[in-house]
Amino acid sequence: MKAFVKTFGCTFNQADSDEIKSFLRKKGVEIVGSENAADAVVFNTCGVKTATQEKILHEIRGVKGKKLVIAGCLAQVTPELILKANPDALITGIANGERILQVLLERKAKAENAVGFHPSPPVVDGFIARTCIARGCLNACAYCQTRVARGALESAPPGEVIQGVKQAVRQGAREIQLTAQDCGCYGFDLRPRATLARLVEELNGIPGEFRIRVGMLNPQHALKQLPELVNAFAMEKTYKFLHVPVQSGSDFVLRSMLRNYSNKDFKRVINAFRKKIPGITLATDVIVGYPTEQDEDFEKTLALLEEIRFDVVNISKFTPRPKTPAAKLTQLNNVLVKRRSEEVNFWARKAGLERNESWIGKTCSALFTEKGRGKNVLGRNEFYKPVIAENRGGIKLGGFARVRIVGAVQGGLLAEQA
Q: Which of 34, 278, 301, 335 has its CA 20 to 30 A from that of 311?
């Protein structure tokens, strides 16, 4: 059997797909690179945004004459939409490789007997290994389907995460990506309690040349371990990169979203990291056009972006998701939401480019993991900035090299060998 696996959504979904493909290969299924070459198609879906949902449903409608398996969050939360798009689709919801194979072979799934979250060891993809440290979350945001799809927080035992990373490093991984729906609350459900800060500290002690990228974490959970977390990010093997979503600069809107933190809390997190790690790369998420967002609330979001000047801002125009409280609210005018989104995008891109330009003339170390066009190679510096450099023979993929930054673009840094 030949199978094509396509992933939509976050790094956690990508890690799930890595495990699915690895398991299928071990069982004799050939993983191919296109739908046309496959006997069976597996879509690992995302349910966060309406635009992504519509893209997925469009592709589901287009699959003809092949076995089609739909996994992931969209399948878990709204299977009726999938069956309407393609009545022949086989829906698994959140599923691992074993479950996918059972469906492909038309077998009934075994009952789940395992207690707790015990993810498969990370799969090394090139020089990158994605490691699922937890699933589910402690939040109940008014607009989000994640809790519906993934459930309450379940953290992997620290020992299992550490052993998985050790194995990945032995297999050649040079970048370890820690992923979860919310990395910040990792371990809060375990007894004895564990924390993200302690986990990252222990991972830094693993021998070998590699880097650790910590995934998105919410500010209220960062506050509970702030000094320890900042110190863990300052350690040598941790990328100096922090992804912490603000969503809105208005406390009124944050309360309406049920986000459980204030802008004062958010700034406290940002200031602590910037004080300890000057120049740290900051990424955030902003929702524009939430139903309760008035003009003054939007202006507060713009003011926050201007004050903090993030390197990366992921902007989402609010769209109601099924089975969420926010879907019941009166929606804002689409033209207004689009205008606000464009304004946020303008200021976010301006700040991001200026942050990149501040690197020009500096020398740094970068880990190169991919070939680019021509002689170019692609990598990340210690601040997780994308780096493009011409390889004149001294850069080895999977290795570190000193480079001088000679230019900047919206998406990263242009470099030459130092």
A: 335
